[in-house]
# Entry
Amino acid sequence: MSEKELIKQIRRLPTEAQQEAADFVEFLTKKYINKPLETDFTKKKSIVESSFRGVWKYRDDLQDSTKWVRELRKSRWAD
# Structure
């Protein structure tokens, strides 16, 4: 089917169906021509941008991480 024939057929459709056709063409364009957009899951962020940042902010026992690890090791591996 030629481009002109396709346009003629689309013009014969009701307005609602023309919008569906336009939406479908947009979908196909994104799928086959445009690169997919990066999602929050695929793009790499620095730890500063991470949603985990500050997750233990209010834990008093974790303010000094070195001390916390040292105490944890003592409790788990002490003689």
In short: The chain has two domains: 3-32, 47-77. The radius of gyration is 28 Å. Residues 3-32 form one domain. The chain has a mean pLDDT of 83.
